[in-house]
Amino acid sequence: MTEEEKVTETNTPENEEMTPAEKLTREENEANLKKVREIIRIAKKNYPRANMDRIMHAYEVANHMHQGQKRKSGEPFIDHPIEVALILAEMHAAPDCIAAGMLHDVVEDTSLTIDDVQAEFGSTIAELVDGVTKLKKIGDLTKEEQQAENLRKMVMHIAEDPRVVVIKLVDRLHNMRTLQYMNTDQQMKKARETLEIYAPLAHRFGMSKIKWELEDLSFKYLDPIGYEEIEQQLNMTRKNREDFITNILALVGAALEENGIHNAELDGRPKHIYSIKRKMDQNKKRLDQIYDLLAIRIIVDTNAQCYSVLGIIHNMFNIVDKRFKDYISRPKPNGYRSIHTTVLSSEGIPFEVQIRTHEMHAMAEMGIAAHWRYKEGTKKDAELEESETYEWVKRLYESQRDEESSEFLETFKMNLYTDEVFVYTPKGDVKVLPLGSTPIDFAYCIHSDIGNRMVGAKVNGELKPLTYTLKTGDKIDIITSNAPNRGPSRDWLKIVKSPEARSKLRQWFKKERKEENIELGKVMLDRELKRQGVTYQELFEDEEAVDEFLKRSNFGSVDDMLNALGFGDITALKIIVRLKDIYAKRRQSNQTAEEPMNLKTAKDAKVKPESVSDNGVIVQDMSNCLVKIARCCNPVPGDMIVGYTTRTSGVSVHRADCPNVKAMAEIDSGRMIQVRWASDIPGSSKHTAEIKIEAIDDGQTLIKVANAINEMAIRMTSFSSKNSKDNYQNLDVTVEITDRTQLDLLIRKLETIDTVSKVIRPVR
Ligand code: MN
Questions:
Q1: Same domain for 498 and 597?
Q2: CA 476, CA 441: separation in Å to the nearest integer?
């Protein structure tokens, strides 16, 4: 058979994407050639010594064979293999792999045979094309058996040569990018298949960049409204987010420079829509409650620099979690390495920082494909083979011979997910639970009633404690009891892992233990009332105020409130503080409505009088108590403040974002007390503020700073300066100011001095 004859046979291609059509125009051919030359240019850059002829030859053969075929979009079919080859080249694939990408559809969709490819291009390219061809119908979800067969093949190929699967993933990526031309049924089918198999597969290969794009594209077709909702909300808040990130990036960039890290790459990481959706679903949160929408990424040269950067970041910002996540010393199962830490901006807004090297970054984005870049792409890379990424493939490869197709399919799918366990009911139904789940999670996943009556569990026929951590493949039998007065234990709330089990447990306690909770709530409220020196009568006498409180706090009745208190949804202190707040506000509005001088109304008598301390602070419902301004953070009027009742020296007043007071509140929240600045602090009253300035020592800085302060008629009470290495100067200045506005003005003024690099209010 000659090549010409083969072409005439391709008029009814099997591939659903194609319709017959006429030959390419001269312009189209030229445009294609230009793209192929670009592919070769990229490949040449990555593999300077390799011969590029086979890429051009692969294009010529593919172009010839696909002649007359069109995609659903109306574009000539050849556009598709060219795009696939281009993406592969950009991923640093070697020329063989790029050529195979160019030829990946010829055996399937034209009359060219795999032997022809072998004769023309040799065995490496032929094996790759053969592998991809055999994976063609992998995801025909209606035919489970066939899908299983194809997955089996996929696993064999991953074990033999992962490049086959990489080409397949890139093929799917380009098809998903151009999915709009398919009919709705096909769109849904492809999207589901992509989300169920290809995206997790990309994840297992550590190819997150492809994974994210596949997920977002699938989500867009499967749930267009949901997708658009998130997209719109993101757009609405985009400006704010971008401003915030730009600001943080500038701060961090300057700090890195100061610390001698000069070529760091900084980046505000965009969150992917599907991962936002998943987060919202998992945590039952609204978009505005997901805080790691704000994130930055810092890419440096060496591992050691990663840890230096971590130190710098922790120096600049307060840490949210005491622990940061070090995936460098403990990589994720798919090979992901990076450091993650969540910190607070000076405004108290949390954001995530990811720190990694360029190599880690390439691995994180491109996964196994990144090995091409860093290992000059040999087929069997010893290190690659030994890496954990391949452990699961090897296990599957070894186990698959003995399994039925349908079982194999399940095993395969299970192994695609690393954050979940798959377990069986006694009847053999599969349940998916978060990693770390216990038999209690399983019981509640079956039914609340099973969970509530649970007394024990058998795992694979053996009795296990309720704290047992479930493993994929476990078969679980829940033992229940019908005895009255039995029910879940409060400790279970600490054991369960799944949000579902947790919420069902909470529901039960709230409903079934209502009387118990109310009794407990009364005791707790009494105790706190005594501590605050108020009586129940005083606080609950005014029905209107109580009603307003209940309504605002979403309680149907006082019993409801006590139930929530006993159950742990609210603290007694919060109830008291909120109620007092309402009394205070009502009293205030009464005052302004009535005679200003008429202070002694009946209502006023119920609440203790308040007074302004010498330093302008009012302690909620307290009069004449000792008030001290905390020296660690030196709040000034205009700052958000909180009070902390010390054992011996009255109330100490901190800035609301002071890490010290936050730590103290964690230990004993009962000692926190509401404070506020008096509205009429006399203008003459002075407050101490500390300022830390970092500047280049040009011999003039001290004078410039002193002048700036003097120009604002602000009094300095202390001034010290220390020179650091690199010609830097650290100034500590204490000033007396009237309020936050004046302080902010001063800081801004100091920042404009040319040698000053940073001005902050320190917290000790
Ligand atoms: Mn294709």
A1: no
A2: 11
Q: Are residues 493 and 599 in the same domain?
A: no
Angle 244-246-251 from CA coordinates, rounded to 5°: 95
Is residue 545 situated within a structural domain? yes
Q: Which residue has the tokens 């795992």?
A: 459
CB neighbour class for 483 (10 Å; exposed up to 12, middle 13-18, buried from 19): exposed
Indicate if 466 and 529 belong to the same structural domain: no
Q: Which of 448, 450, 454, 457 is nearest to 510 (CA)?
A: 448
Together in a domain, 246 and 183: no
Active-site hit among 38, 75, 90, 108: 108
Q: Give per-residue pLDDT as tens, 222-242.
A: 888 888 888 887 777 777 778
Asked about 108 being catalytic, the answer comes back as: yes
Indicate if 216 and 256 belong to the same structural domain: no
d(C-alpha 148, C-alpha 137), whole Å: 11
In this predicted structure, what is the pLDDT of residue 579? 85
Number of domains observed in the structure of the chain? 5
Domain at 734, CATH number: 3.30.70.260
Distance 174 CA to ligand 1 centre (A): 8
pTM of the model: 0.49
Q: What is the dihedral of CA 300, 163, 155, 383, to 10 degrees?
A: -50
Domain boundary, last residue among 589, 607, 625: 607
Residues 174 and 102 grouped into a single domain: yes
Is the residue at 62 inside a domain?
yes
Which among 36, 158, 34, 47 has a CA at the least distance from the CA of 92?
47
604 in catalytic set: no
Tell me, yes or no, whether 116 and 265 share the same domain.
no
Q: Which helix (H) or strand (E) holds 431?
A: strand 430-434
User: How far is ligand 1, taken at its centre, from the CA of residue 217, in Å?
Assistant: 17
Question: CB–CB of 716/735 below 8 Å?
Answer: yes
CA of 84 to the centre of ligand 1 (A): 8
| Ligand 1 mean position, distance from CA 442 (Å) | 42
Amino acid identity, residue 360? M
Domain hosting residue 436, numbered range: 418-507
How do residues 505-532 score in pLDDT, each as one tens digit? 888 888 888 888 888 888 889 888 887 7
Give per-residue pLDDT as tens, 525-559. Answer: 988 888 777 888 888 888 888 888 888 877 888 98
Q: Is 476 left (phi over 0), alpha (psi -120 to 50) or beta?
A: beta
Which CATH number is 356's domain given? Answer: 3.30.460.10
User: What is the rounded distance in angstroms from the CA atom of residue 455 to the CA atom of residue 486?
Assistant: 9
Dihedral over Cα of 546, 547, 552, 553: its sign: positive
Both 55 and 175 in one domain: the answer is yes
Structural domain contains residue 644: no
Q: What is the dihedral of CA 136, 141, 142, 146, to 10 degrees?
A: 50
Residue 137 CA to ligand 1 centre (angstroms): 11
Catalytic residue among 17, 79, 105, 109: 109
Examine the fold and report which residue of 490, 507, 524 is the final residue of a domain before the chain moves on: 507
Q: Is 377 among the domain residues?
A: no
Q: Tell me if 413 sits within 8 A of 420, measured CB to CB.
A: no
105 C-alpha vs ligand 1 centroid, how far in Å? 5
CATH number of the domain at 166, please: 1.10.3210.10
Question: d(Cα 700, Cα 3) in Å, to the nearest integer?
Answer: 83
